[in-house]
Write a sequence for this structure.
């Protein structure tokens, strides 16, 4: 069925061409609104407990801004590459769409590796999930973001792969678009994580 | 709309996959059937919760009784509250949302039929998971609010897992509710029939719209709260443990940031039902429609700004208490607007006291009483006196039973013909009404005074000689009467189900689109999407001398989504995984999650092209009109 | 449904206005600069603590708005409900954070 749709037959914004596509986009935006509240509550928890370190290293002693800087750079760039993917999708270039999404996934993987490395390092320093309320809230907030990155990587990889079989259609276009929105959102949350968790942690109290 | 679907899928004609019997119900994505599933499941849990209430009242009938003491009583109160809020009231409202909203806006289905089914099965999995705790070492016993650190206590012997059932059950059901909310939000925004502008939507649809917004933005808060409690209980986290710097007030904040909008999630659709019923049976259009809409939106917004009034005695200080007290009292203003609008709708109307209208008119004074005690509780200084007494119990039962449940019954008698094609018996209905209404007031009116006399809530007994005997005795008698009323209602359902289908398209002389189509509604709802020419679309046509709606499209093939077992399997996966977490068998939880994830992959990989109902089949359908 | 097809056609002509890489690259540069400023403010360490916290939070918010409107296309038409939704979600998140900061941390 996918083959019957030539590239030329695709409308300008294929993600909004059908009612299903429009519904999907609106639902996903609404879901992102709900995610705002989810992360807001996790941030609230972290704000309330960030200085609760009975013993063990504090945020100021622990955090290394160099790693955080690299993580930020990777994620920010991956957000840009997913924009490129959608731009190419709008031009009807399916191969370029998949390619840019693949770059996005690789950058996301890089971010994830840095994060795992960072967590391992912290655990060796004595900053564990169970060691203090600061530890518990830190790993829950940053870990929840990491889980979102992981889910995004799996999701976008699935889309790239099924793209080879299905091509770019009014059915697959909303999927690409929505996945890109998700990826931007995950990057957006990271902006607040490096600000509130790492930078404010470095400032101390 | 059908045309667009057809184009989108290059008009591929697929043979419809049809199941019968049990398989039909497990795989259905039809919103009307899902509505019935919600009604059955919600009704079932309502009966369980009601039974628990009767056991509680039996224990409290006389002073110093020892029928259900200590932990058993705690489990009864906890399960009564949790079951009634999450597994009875919520699904009963979702039943109406599913059965009515797509019909009221002239849509063929909801925006996401698959997600709709998934939402139901997740709720059901969560409800069943939690209720199995009764047979697996004991039910949750930390109150429906599960305040930490009481709720984070772990049984050292590892036998009692009550609160784990609470955490996992609510988490699974909560995901279902959240996606249900998003689904209805999108449905109402994107799927309205031509001409159905926002300010022409029936008030029930408006209230469901606002409720869906509240669900979407309130449920993530309890998701986070439950995750934190789960991490503390299962993985030795420190969120609520003071010795490692945790803070148990955090739970209260998160719970009530969700919890207060939650009670408005419950009451909003009730307001919608009352608006529909009161105006239909007064033969008058709703008084002050636009002020009703404005009040609904305002109440919805304010509901997020008042959660601290549940925490006045936590010690957050005079400034915080005052701000939230004023915000709380402010809600009385839009609610009062609604009360007056209903009264003015009745005023001078041609009132018919059908059972639906009996429940609706009984709702108005009952809800006002609950509202008045609400404003009393909103005064922090006075709240220190009322806090955790039976005064609070009386208040929230007046708004939830007297508000929500009375309107659910009004809605059931009103929409039963549209859902099942049969009219409920009015005679038995009146017996049901009077037993339930009198029983309700007997149960909860004395509790105001018991509370003011100092009887604390959640205690399993009281001593003789403090003047508490009479009130408690009357209260228990009232509970029995409500139980009798429910039995009469069940008899009514059975009697109705056994008779021939007797409901016409429009048994009540209604105003809105659901009354323009056959009862029960055909699978595709509208043979032709109707053109809406004003508020109360059907009434408008009736006034213009038309018998039916003007169609907005020619008769054509109608696109239908395929049934699927995946929603059931996904929920089953999470259900299994829930037990894995509760019993710390992480291989089981992993396996359950894998089932769910594989189902998600299958859903993503294989596109559902659906199938079409051809115009010839439409002509054959007995409900169809040429 | 016919109105949607019209929309698609009129979008075609407007598309080129916002669909160039320029705005997206610009957003990237702005985001990177804002991030660098925030890191620099903390690393410099000579400033008042409250000022730094307010400064970096404001920079984060500006970056968020930029990405939301350009990368997530929220400034384009048909995004009324999405913007309302995100704004309301953010507002409630902010309420929760404010409560935590006011009563439990500060």
């Amino acid at each position: 069925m996918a083959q019957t749709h030539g590239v030329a037959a695709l409308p300008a914004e294929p993600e909004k061409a059908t009612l299903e596509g429009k519904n999907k986009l609106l639902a996903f935006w609404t879901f992102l609104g709900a995610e705002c509240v989810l992360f807001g509550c996790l941030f609230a928890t972290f704000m309330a407990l960030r200085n609760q370190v009975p013993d063990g290293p504090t945020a100021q002693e622990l955090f290394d801004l160099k790693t955080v800087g690299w993580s930020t750079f990777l994620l920010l760039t991956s957000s840009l590459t997913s924009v490129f993917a959608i731009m190419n999708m709008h031009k009807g270039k399916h191969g370029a769409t998949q390619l840019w999404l693949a770059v996005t996934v690789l950058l996301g993987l890089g971010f994830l590796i840095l994060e795992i490395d960072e967590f391992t390092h912290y655990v060796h320093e004595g900053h564990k999930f169970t060691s203090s309320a600061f530890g518990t809230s830190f790993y829950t907030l940053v870990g929840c973001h990491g889980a979102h990155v992981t889910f995004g990587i799996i999701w976008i990889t699935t889309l790239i792969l099924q793209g080879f079989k299905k091509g770019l259609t009014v059915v697959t276009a909303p999927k690409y678009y929505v996945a890109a929105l998700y990826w931007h959102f995950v990057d957006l949350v990271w902006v607040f994580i490096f600000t509130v968790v790492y930078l404010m942690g470095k400032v101390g109290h | 709309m059908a045309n667009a679907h057809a184009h989108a899928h290059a008009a591929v004609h697929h043979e419809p996959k049809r199941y019968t019997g049990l398989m039909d119900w497990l795989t259905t994505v039809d919103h009307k059937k899902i509505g019935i599933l919600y009604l059955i499941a919600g009704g079932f849990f309502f009966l369980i919760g009601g039974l628990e209430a009767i056991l509680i009242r039996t224990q409290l009938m006389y002073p110093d009784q020892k029928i259900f003491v200590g932990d058993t009583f705690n489990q009864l109160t906890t399960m009564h509250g949790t079951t009634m809020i999450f597994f009875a009231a919520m699904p009963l409202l979702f039943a109406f949302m599913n059965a009515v909203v797509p019909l009221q806006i002239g849509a063929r289905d909801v925006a996401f039929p698959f997600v709709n089914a998934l939402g139901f099965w997740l709720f059901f999995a969560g409800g069943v998971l939690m209720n199995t705790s009764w047979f697996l070492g004991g039910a949750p016993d930390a109150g429906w609010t599960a305040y930490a650190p009481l709720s984070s206590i772990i049984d050292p012997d590892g036998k009692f897992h009550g609160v784990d059932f609470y955490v996992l059950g609510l988490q699974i059901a909560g995901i279902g509710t959240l996606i249900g909310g998003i689904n209805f939000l999108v449905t109402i925004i994107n799927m309205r029939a031509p001409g159905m502008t926002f300010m022409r939507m029936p008030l029930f649809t408006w209230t469901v719209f606002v409720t869906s917004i509240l669900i979407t933005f309130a449920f993530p808060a309890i998701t986070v709260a439950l995750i934190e409690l789960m991490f503390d209980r299962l993985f030795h986290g420190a969120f609520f443990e003071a010795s490692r710097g945790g803070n148990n007030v955090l739970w209260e904040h998160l719970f009530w940031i969700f919890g207060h909008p939650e009670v408005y999630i419950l009451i909003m659709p009730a307001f919608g039902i009352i608006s529909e019923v009161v105006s239909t049976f007064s033969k008058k259009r709703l008084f002050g429609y636009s002020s009703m809409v404005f009040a609904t939106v305002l109440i919805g917004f304010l509901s997020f700004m008042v959660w601290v009034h549940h925490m006045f005695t936590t010690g957050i200080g005079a400034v915080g208490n005052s701000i939230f007290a004023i915000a709380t009292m402010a809600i009385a203003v839009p609610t009062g607007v609604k009360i007056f609008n209903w009264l003015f709708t009745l005023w001078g109307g041609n009132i018919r006291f059908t059972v639906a209208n009996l429940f609706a008119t009984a709702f108005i004074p009952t809800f006002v009483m609950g509202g008045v005690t609400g404003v009393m509780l909103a005064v922090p200084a006075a709240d220190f006196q009322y806090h955790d007494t039976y005064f609070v119990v009386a208040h929230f039962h007046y708004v939830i039973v007297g508000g929500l449940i009375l309107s659910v019954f009004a809605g059931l008698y009103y929409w039963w013909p549209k859902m099942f094609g049969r009219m409920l018996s009015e005679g038995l209905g009146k017996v049901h009404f009077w037993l339930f209404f009198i029983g309700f007031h007997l149960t909860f009116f004395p509790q105001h005074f018991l509370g003011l006399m100092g009887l604390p809530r959640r205690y399993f007994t009281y001593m003789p000689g403090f003047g508490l005997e009479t009130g408690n005795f009357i209260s228990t008698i009232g509970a029995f009467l409500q139980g009798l009323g429910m039995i009469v209602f069940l008899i009514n359902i059975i009697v109705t189900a056994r008779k021939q289908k007797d409901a016409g398209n429009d048994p009540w002389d209604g105003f809105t689109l659901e009354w323009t189509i056959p009862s029960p509604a055909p699978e595709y709802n509208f043979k032709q999407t109707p053109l809406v020419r004003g508020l109360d679309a059907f009434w408008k046509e009736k006034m213009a001398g038309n018998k039916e709606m003007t169609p907005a499209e020619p008769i054509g093939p109608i696109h239908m989504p395929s049934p699927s077992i995946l929603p059931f399997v996904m929920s089953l996966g999470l259900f299994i995984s829930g037990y894995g977490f509760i019993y710390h068998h992480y291989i089981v939880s992993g396996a359950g999650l894998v089932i769910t994830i594989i189902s998600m992959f299958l859903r993503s990989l294989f596109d559902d092209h659906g199938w079409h109902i051809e115009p010839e089949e439409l002509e054959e359908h007995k409900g169809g009109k040429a | 449904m016919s109105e949607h097809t019209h929309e698609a056609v009129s979008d075609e002509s407007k598309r080129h206005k916002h669909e160039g890489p320029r705005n997206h690259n610009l957003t990237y540069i702005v985001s990177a600069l804002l991030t660098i400023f925030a890191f620099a403010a903390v690393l410099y360490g000579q400033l008042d603590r409250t000022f730094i916290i307010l400064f970096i939070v404001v920079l984060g918010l500006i970056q968020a708005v930029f990405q939301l409107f350009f990368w997530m296309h929220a400034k384009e038409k048909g995004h009324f409900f999405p913007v309302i939704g995100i704004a309301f979600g953010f507002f409630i998140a902010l309420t929760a954070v404010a409560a935590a900061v006011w009563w439990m941390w500060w």
User: Anything to note?
Assistant: Residues 2-75 of chain C form one domain.
